[in-house]
Structure formats: structure tokens, C-alpha cells
Design goal:
Elements (H helix, E strand, L loop, with lengths): L2 H8 L5 H13 L7 E4 L4 H11 L9 E4 H8 L3 H12 L5 H22 L4 H13 L1 H6 L3 H15 L7 E2 H9 L10 H14 L7 H9 L3 E2 L7 E4 L10 H10 L3 E3 L1 H4 L10 E5 L2 H10 L7 E3 L6 H12 L3 E4 L5 H10 L5 E3 L4 H6 L4 E2 L13 H8 L1 E2 L6 H8 L2
Parallel strand pairs: 3-4, 7-8, 7-9, 9-10
Antiparallel strand pairs: 1-2, 5-6, 5-8, 11-12
Helix pairs in contact: 1-5, 2-5, 7-11, 9-11, 15-20
């Protein structure tokens, strides 16, 4: 049968499925003269077209089975002729195996280039290797290698600075990408950055809203001006300032209150407070409010990794010559918190010495990467030798005594 006649024969709409299956075989480099092609739930038109192709009586049933060897024999052609007909009807067909090998090579070169670029930072190497293994980056860009490179460049611009200067998430997104929503929850760039932050800080920002806030806060980024408020107890505002009336109401009753970013920006602290204490866990604030109420010294809680709002508030206090007494859990995350909040000349430790550590009852083994700034004395060495964490709650009686007016 001539090729022209074959092309006309295969243009029957009921044979579209057969042509597509033959295209897939060509893409895979599979032979066209062996095996069978099965069509489940075939329509009446598809069955009629196959019967006509084989020149046989009308058949019945729910599925079709086309034996390729029998098809080649019936048409009195060879596999090469059938291949040319399929290509003539469907256009040039690249071999899927070859195209995938080319694509795989492009991805390998991309990851190799990025591993070389960030090799001096172990957390970044873990991040890139994780993306290479789990396919997250490929899924995010629809397998477009060039787009993946652009996305990694944007992510690295966000991640590489030690900290951004109190910037909002939407503003950061607009600055880097031109799209203020590029770092919204679930967006590809946001997911890549949060995964990297998890490798660097151990905070999984893809789990809860609070973890997401903490993750971005570790980069000096605020999610918005109402989230991540600072928990305070007896922190007083200057008399006559806008915030003084409602803050005084809480202070008079010894009730904790929250200061969101919008209010912290204009907060004018009362310099008569003298010293402000800082802890990590809300439980300490709650206990101080319960036991001491209005007789507690001013207390601020970071609630884990300090947000940009917390850092800004402490800077504002230091600018007003208020002394800061800092503490957190005796674990590596807590030590890092203290280091982030330390303001030279304005802050000192609050029961965060090696002696204080020994007073507590160890709760569980230390995890994470040791963080031991030299200004903390021998605390880091003692903790590393012990291998155990001690949490603030273990020292609650000592802390309450320090807070009592």
C-alpha cells in the first residue's frame, strides 16, 4: 500500500488513539512491529475504525487489542513505512529517551554549578542537595531549567544577607521579583526560601503560621505589621504619649499585653523603668503576672526566635538608656536568641551563666549545632560537655525573685 493511501487511511478520527500510541512508541524508541496496543472502553466509532483498518466484520466488546505484527502484515508494509506515516501525520517526533537524557544533563549541570557557588555554607549545600533529591524545584518550574536558575538566584538574594533591615515580607518580594505576592504562603519562591531557612535555623516555616513568622523573622523580615506582637508585662510608656492610657490600664492591674509592629514603631518607653527583663517563653510572663502582678519588674517575651518587632522594641529601649537583662532556654537555640538580642553597652545576662545552668534540672539532650559566642564566658563549653538542655521553667523560682519589686 502506498504511503499516500496509508495517510488517508489513518486520518480516520476513530484511529486517533492508535496514532497517539504509535507516537509514544516512537518517542520511547520502541519497535512498531511487535507487541499489542490495547484500548479499554473503546467507543463504537473507534471499534468500527479498527475493524475497517483490518478489513474485517464488525466486532463487539469493551476493549480493543491491536497486534502490531498483524497490522504490519495486513497492510503489507514494514515498520519503517508505518513510522514515516505517523511522522507525516503528527510532525517530527523526538525520541523521549534522548530528550530526557539531554534534560537530565542540564539539571545536573545546574545543581553542580550551585553546589560550587554555595559550597562554603554547609546549610546551603544541604538545601541544594535536598532540592536535587526531592524534585521540589523541578515541580515548581515545570522542568524549565532556565526558570529554575532564575528562581534560585532570587532565593539566594533573599537568603545570603545575614539579616534584612526590618523589612516587610511583601516589600522584600516586590524588591527582589517585582511581585509583592511572590513570597506569599505556597508560592514557589516562598517554599524554596522556607526550606533553606529550615536547613539554616531548624525552623520549619511550612508547618504553622507561627513557625512561618519565626522563620522569616530569623532573616529580619516581618510578615506583616499586625502579626508577631510582642508579649509584655508592666512595660510602661512615657506619660502623655498616645499609648500610655491603655498600657497604664494593664500595668495598674499587672496584666500582660501585646504590642504589634504598628504600635511598637511609635512606642515611647518610660525611662524611669530603669531596667527591662527579657525572657524566651510566655510561661515566664504568665507566672510573673500570676505571682507578682503589678509588683513585677518590666518583662518582655521573645516567644522563641525574636521577631523584627522584638528587636526593634529592644533597640528603642536601649536608645532611651534603659538597661536590658536577657535570658532564654539553656539550649543552642536559646543561646542564639541571646546573641541576636545582645546590644553592647545596654544589655547583660539574666541568670545565663554556667552556674545558673548547673542550678537547673536537665530536661533532655541538646540538639542542633552548638552556638557559643565568646561574650557568654564558659557557658557554651559547660553545656557542650553536659550535653543536656535546661529550660527557663526549671529556674522559675529564681526568676520570680529577680522580678519582684
Amino acid at each position: 500500500m502506498k504511503s499516500e493511501s496509508l495517510r488517508m487511511l489513518f486520518q480516520e478520527p476513530g484511529l486517533d488513539w492508535l496514532l497517539e500510541r504509535l507516537v509514544r512508541r516512537i518517542e520511547r524508541g520502541s519497535p512498531l512491529d511487535t507487541g499489542s496496543l490495547i484500548r479499554k472502553n473503546a467507543t463504537t466509532d473507534e471499534r468500527r475504525a479498527i475493524d475497517d483498518l483490518f478489513g474485517r466484520r464488525s466486532s463487539s466488546g469493551q476493549s480493543l487489542n491491536v497486534n502490531l505484527k498483524n497490522l504490519i502484515s495486513h497492510l503489507a508494509i514494514d515498520a519503517s513505512v508505518l513510522r514515516s506515516v505517523v511522522i507525516a501525520l503528527r510532525g517530527p517526533i523526538s525520541k523521549l529517551r534522548e530528550s530526557r537524557e539531554i534534560e537530565a544533563g542540564e539539571w545536573n549541570r545546574l545543581f553542580a554549578r550551585w553546589k560550587k557557588r554555595i559550597k562554603k555554607k554547609s546549610w546551603a549545600t544541604n538545601w541544594i542537595e535536598g532540592l536535587e533529591k526531592n524534585g521540589q524545584l523541578k515541580r515548581a518550574v515545570g522542568r524549565e531549567v532556565k526558570l529554575a536558575d532564575e528562581l534560585l538566584c532570587q532565593a539566594w538574594t533573599i537568603l545570603d544577607p545575614a539579616s534584612h533591615d526590618e523589612i516587610f515580607l511583601a516589600s522584600l518580594a516586590a524588591k527582589i521579583t517585582g511581585d509583592s505576592h511572590a513570597l506569599d504562603r505556597g508560592e514557589p519562591l516562598s517554599s524554596l526560601c522556607l526550606r533553606a531557612i529550615f536547613e539554616r535555623e531548624g525552623i520549619d516555616g511550612n508547618t504553622t503560621a507561627d513557625k512561618r513568622r519565626q522563620a522569616w523573622a530569623s532573616l529580619g523580615v516581618t510578615v506583616d505589621d499586625l502579626s508577631a506582637p510582642v508579649l509584655c508585662l508592666n512595660l510602661r510608656a512615657t506619660s502623655g504619649s498616645d499609648a500610655a492610657p491603655w498600657i497604664d490600664w494593664h500595668v495598674a492591674r499587672g496584666e500582660p499585653f501585646f504590642l504589634p509592629w504598628r504600635q511598637v514603631r511609635g512606642f515611647d518607653p518610660d525611662p524611669e523603668m530603669g531596667t527591662v527583663f527579657v525572657c524566651e517563653n510566655p510561661a515566664i510572663v504568665s507566672e510573673a503576672a500570676t505571682r507578682l502582678g503589678s509588683h513585677s519588674r518590666p518583662l518582655i517575651c521573645t516567644n522563641g526566635i525574636p521577631s523584627t518587632t522584638v528587636k526593634f522594641l529592644l533597640k528603642r529601649l536601649a536608645e532611651r538608656s534603659l538597661a536590658l537583662r536577657l535570658r532564654a532556654d539553656f539550649d543552642w537555640a536559646g543561646i542564639k536568641i541571646i546573641d541576636q538580642l545582645h546590644i553592647s553597652g545596654h544589655s547583660e545576662l539574666w541568670r545565663m551563666t554556667a552556674e545558673d545552668y548547673r542550678r537547673g534540672k536537665p530536661s533532655q539532650a541538646l540538639t542542633g549545632k552548638p552556638h557559643t559566642p565568646t561574650w557568654l564566658g564558659d557557658l557554651g563549653k559547660v553545656m557542650k560537655k553536659s550535653g543536656m538542655a535546661v529550660y527557663e521553667e526549671e529556674l522559675i523560682d529564681f526568676l520570680i525573685t529577680d522580678l519582684r519589686l
